């Protein structure tokens, strides 16, 4: 029987690997996700047949409750709320790893069995990483859901305090490994790690959330892997390692998209980026901004042949993706070539804009990544920026004093005309003025993204 | 013997990370959100440990911890796979 279950675990691992492989193309992605789900089902069934599983009341109750909650979450969540949904799910995964590790410790402890050194190490790591993932993800969820302010939160002695806690947890962990029969120490590690999760994510600001969410995603995988070491189960090790790798790659992509090191993001805030800091930025652009209303903009768009739309977090906040799709449709009807330029860190999680536009039924082949579209801006008549700011700030290219200097940006200013839809002239996340607004080819189109796009679509329809 | 088993597990872990890197670098940016939610669901694989904890014969602290762990892991698994499917259904090409 043991051999059979190990073979099934191997099959499940293969399902996960092939499932992720199929995620490489939108055509096969859905199938890939389903394949991974089948792998999970196989793993659950074969575990239920394990001879160590003797009573089923608690198991059945847990499966029903958990599945029901998960299903409600998955079916109710709006596409704009996807970052917090992923954050929350991460947290539950991390939490489950902690509980399993503590439970395994209790089993050995009360069963008066011998602690193997590698088991204790795995238990400590699983508890540590799982706890940080759990509370860290809950804080990330709170920030994205705006239960907690999305701004950078600073507290006194932030770095020394965290450093001390990390060192402390490490020391206690080593003591526990040397002298494993001491359940209080494990609970201390759990408590400190839970606190660390809160303290480490609290300072991270809203626009840095793509990095935080990716990193927590990676942690939840590594925690699962550690649980695999605790249970001596290779399937858990493999599945966890795949997720861990996925999270790390996304984290690296997000950091590159902001030209910042991981440490800089984790330690919180742009102010670490440049000594000057945003407040001291002297090169504040001067001059008049020109604005345009929907009627004039509709007239302008009547005589163009190519448009690139640049969506940002503002589109998500205003739930404007459907209005943007309508704009695309009406422009295409007039024979205008419409494409979308997606900056890697647009929104609050990797791929956030793509999901929103997919929901609005914009075909995915019209969404282009920064490196694929950046050379096309000079040949484009009109760029329409909807709720994006720092990712189109030309200061990143030339102003060495700017905190965002060196960040890769969309070269929207090379287009003939740039329309910027914003509610006001307020600064973006980095807290700096955007000189683009003052460029001679830039026109501000003020208003909430959804209202503004709807008005524009109506003008375009009535003019044709 | 114990050390040998650990070494084998580390082998598996390291190789799986390399497989993960190879696979995930091929996922296009447009699918990064479903990749996160889908891989998230896979990290709910700790359900296996939770089932083993909750399934012991006599009721103990282990059973309670296992029970809560099952709830957490199932939220992760069911929520993750369902929401990923919901998203992937929407990705269409002309």
Describe the protein's topology.
The complex is a heterodimer of chains A (464) and B (94).
Chain A: H1 2-22, H2 29-48, H3 57-76, H4 82-110, H5 117-144, H6 158-178, H7 183-201, H8 209-231, H9 234-258, H10 262-266, H11 294-302, E1 306-311, H12 313-317, H13 321-333, E2 337-342, H14 352-359, E3 367-369, H15 370-373, E4 382-386, H16 395-398, E5 417-422, E6 442-446, H17 449-463
Parallel strand pairs in A: 1-2, 1-4, 2-3, 4-5, 5-6
Helix pairs in contact in A: 1-2, 1-9, 4-5, 4-8, 5-6, 5-7, 5-8, 6-7, 8-9, 11-17, 13-17
Chain B: H1 2-24, H2 32-43, H3 47-54, H4 61-90
What does this structure look like?
- The complex is a heterodimer of chains A (464) and B (94).
- By secondary structure, chain A is α/β, with parallel strands linked by helices.
- Chain A has helices at residues 2-22, 29-48, 57-76, 82-110, 117-144, 158-178, 183-201, 209-231, 234-258, 262-266, 294-302, 313-317, 321-333, 352-359, 370-373, 395-398, 449-463; strands at residues 306-311, 337-342, 367-369, 382-386, 417-422, 442-446.
- Chain A has 3 domains: 1-76; 85-271, no CATH class; 294-463, Rossmann fold (3-Layer(aba) Sandwich), CATH 3.40.50.1220.
- A 6-stranded parallel β-sheet of chain A has the order 3-2-1-4-5-6.
- In chain A, β2 (337-342), α14 (352-359) and β3 (367-369) form a beta-alpha-beta unit.
- The longest helix of chain A is centred in the first third of the chain and has 29 residues, at 82-110.
- The radius of gyration of chain A is 25 Å and the shape is elongated.
- Chain A starts with a helix and ends with a helix.
- Chain B is mainly α.
- In chain B, α2 packs antiparallel against α4 and α3 (47-54) runs antiparallel to α4.
- The chains are: A alpha/beta (464), B mainly alpha (94).
